[in-house]
Design goal:
5-stranded mixed beta sheet; Nucleotidyltransferase, domain 5; Sugar (Pentulose or hexulose) kinase; kinase; transferase; 40% helix; alpha/beta; 7-stranded mixed beta sheet; 531 residues; 18% strand; FGGY_N
């Protein structure tokens, strides 16, 4: 405790704050990368005027509340107020649409990655660039607004992401880490900046609109991990900590996305490594040794925080429908007069799934709370289906929903592992799906036919990952590459638990996936007919 107190007093710490889809989390680590304190704020996106969004005031409420909870924990732990920090990093859910006018105010409410109304733009840009542009990417949001002739587009002065917005407000710097930037617009792997050939192609596409800007004018600058990205201003310090205790002048690392912080949190930044984040959404990422042979609409190409090429299979939906079913079981228990905490309930139901038939007994579900680009649904309709001869019991019911939560993601990963023959030794898992020991790992291992490991640091998540990136900025000269820093300074003593795929589980998942693909017209009928 004396050592922790000294680190806090001397500012030998790093603060990471990540704005996830359901929680804003703040983590303070010491110079040994161990967590000292944390804070959090729970929130949910809202469907407003047809768009999934988070209110701007709630963004700042969440950041301030998470920081306040962390600072209070520090004071309680060592009886020292948090007045200075060695470095700070911000991260958030990637992609989406935040555009600002001449007065630096949002022109339209924040449109998150979860919106699937950009198919026309995404397809047109993919064709123009010969490069996969997903609907959730910022450039697809922008071009769809262009195609829709939305009045605000002509007034755009700056476009960024949620992480970039927060960083800009606290430092005055309009910049992004390269991993986060790669979810806005394609990156030139040689320069580690936005691809200028594609920038010119985009400008030509919108030339007839005669906008008073070109794309380079409105995009942020791009930085790689380890580079300095500004300092906390006086106004920024007050916005982060309204109490006035936190001092200005603290250096910030480039803001990153949750994909990049997930790579860092699982030590998956070098070729042939991969990680999968499974929570509200699920995305599996593999650091590639070479470019793919062709463009696949199911595979996104992003980068590590250092600018190395990463293939991503992303599904908009993972645990949301699962969580809704668990909540229903909780309501049933309470109605029966049985009190049960959520951790026990999740653990019991998830472990029950392990008792189910390997193919989930002929049951079928789609946990599409929102649209799902991987299977081409612009809106979501969660549904559960069974045949008259299906084996309907609790174990198969839970196994079905666990399988289904990974179904869309598996379609993309099968392309990488089977069609492209990408080499992958193991996947590192993190996120809510893996909280119940062994269950999420077993399901993921069956889906990918690959060993799935969970590290003892995985529970720290993206907020810890961006704090590590903030610390790397301070220690970069000592270690060199990000990979060296993670291997030698962060994960040298880390332990992990690995679940290998069982052949019967792999076979059962493949049978389920045949049913999943053949049943997609049922989901289409639900989207078209159920309002």
């Amino acid at each position: 405790m004396t050592n922790v107190k000294a680190m806090i007093e001397q500012g030998n710490t790093a603060l990471g704050i990540e704005l996830g889809s359901t929680r804003v989390k703040a983590v303070l680590i010491g110079e040994d990368q161990q967590m000292i304190a944390q804070g959090a704020f729970d929130w949910e996106n809202q469907l407003v005027d047809g768009f999934w969004t988070y209110d701007e005031a709630t963004i700042w409420k969440g950041i301030q509340q998470a920081y306040l909870e962390l600072a209070t924990a520090v004071k309680a732990k060592v009886d020292v107020p948090l007045t200075t920090i060695g470095s700070i990093g911000f991260s958030a859910m990637m992609h989406g649409y935040m555009v600002f006018g001449a007065d630096d105010q949002l022109l339209v409410p924040f449109r998150t990655w979860r919106n699937n109304l950009q198919e026309q733009a995404a397809n047109a840009l993919t064709d123009a660039f010969n490069y996969q542009i997903p609907q959730r990417w910022s450039i697809a949001h922008l071009y769809q607004a262009v195609l829709n002739d939305e009045a605000h587009v002509k007034d755009i002065k700056f476009q960024t992401t949620l992480a970039g917005y927060v960083h800009w407000q606290l430092t005055g710097e309009k910049t992004l880490g390269v991993g986060e930037a790669s979810g806005m617009f394609p990156i030139d792997l040689n320069t580690k900046h936005f691809n200028q050939i594609m920038i010119k192609q985009f400008d030509q596409l919108v030339e007839a609109k005669d906008y008073p800007w070109s794309l380079n004018d409105i995009l942020p600058s791009v930085k790689v991990a380890g580079e300095a990205a500004g300092i906390l201003t006086e106004a920024g310090a007050r916005r982060l900590d309204p109490s006035g205790l936190l001092k200005a002048g603290i250096p910030l690392c480039p803001p990153e996305g949750d994909a990049g912080t997930g790579m860092v949190a699982t030590n998956s930044v070098k070729p042939k490594t991969g990680n999968v984040s499974a929570g509200t959404s699920v995305f599996a990422m593999v650091v590639l040794e070479k470019e793919l042979s062709k463009v696949y609409p199911e595979i996104d190409l992003v980068t590590t925080p250092s600018g190395h090429l990463v293939a991503m299979a992303h599904s908009n939906n993972c645990t949301s429908d699962l969580n809704a079913w668990v909540a229903l079981f909780k309501e049933y228990s309470e109605t029966m007069g049985i009190e049960v905490d959520m951790e026990t309930l999740y653990g019991t139901l998830y472990r029950k799934a392990l008792e189910g038939d390997k193919d989930a007994g002929g049951l079928l579900s789609y946990g599409y709370l929102s649209g799902e680009h991987m299977t081409h649904f612009e809106e979501g309709r969660p549904l559960f289906v069974r045949g008259s001869k299906s084996v309907f019991n609790l174990a198969n019911f839970m196994r079905t929903h666990l399988y289904s939560s990974l179904g869309a993601m598996k379609i993309g990963m099968d392309i990488l592992l089977k069609a492209e023959g990408v080499s992958l030794e193991e996947m590192l898992g993190h996120g809510g799906l893996f909280k119940t020991k062994g269950v999420g790992q077993a399901m993921m291992a069956a889906a990918l036919d690959t060993p799935v490991s969970v590290m003892d640091t995985a529970g720290e998540g993206g907020a810890w990952g961006i704090a590590v990136l903030a610390e790397y900025m301070i220690q970069r000269n000592q270690y060199g590459s990000l990979d060296e820093f993670l291997t030698e300074a962060v994960f040298k003593k880390a332990t992990k638990e690995t679940v290998k795929p069982h052949p019967a589980d792999v076979e059962g998942f493949e049978v389920f996936m045949t049913r999943y693909k053949e049943g997609l017209p049922i989901e289409r009928a639900a989207v078209d007919l159920l309002n």
